[in-house]
Amino acid sequence: MSPRTPRRFRIPGPLCFWRYLLLWCLLAPVFVAAVSARAVVTHESPRVGAAALKFSLGFACLAWILETAYVRWKEYQSLDDDGDYCGAPKKALALGAVAFGGLCPLFIVTSVVVMISGGLAIRPADPPAAPAQPTTTPAPAPVTFDPTAAVAAGPRPVSPATRIPGLLAYWPFDDWADDLGPAKQTARVIGGKRAPGARGGALWVTGPKSHADLGAHPTLNFAAGAPFTVSTWVRTTTDGVVLSFRNAAESGAVVMLSVEDWKLV
Known about the structure:
2 domains, 33% helix, elongated
């Protein structure tokens, strides 16, 4: 009787598929970390879908080049075997299965991590107290826009919006960005300062990137053709966007209220 030859474990072919999968597992966490870090630093919501698609296309090109170079290196070192060789159609199929098969879980994981990391954004601190006015009469200065300056007639009384029937959300900016509506959907303030408003507090938009992100709560998802009303107090000396709603799947605004040439548009 001849002794049995021990069986050796062999990875099922094609080997290029497993190399593509290994490279994907190494680079995907780097992509997730980079997108999440950018969201925390810039306090902006990145377009995860577009970023994930670009990553998959770039991964496909890089993986093809590295796989070809690795096989050539094994040939040069006389380490190649039959499993290292497969036709271009089979390599393209294996690469497509890894690059675009992992696109959906990559999008989901990145979106969840970005959503969690977005909660790390720190609310801006209160503006420092204004210095005491000098006793001497200062020289006349050019008129500048300062919403914190006192109004001679005083603020006009305004009824609380919580009395409006059918209210979906209400951001008075008295307690910064808390929602006093039924959904309690706190907004995320990017830049800006507190200032006195028509009744209570207000948000002073101090720069081109300052804004309040109202979020994507289901109560703000108006049905097609459904009526809705938006009410806001605005004081400005320049043109600019007052309110912008968009579909989560699109980058452009669907509903926009802005000031252009001293007119509401």
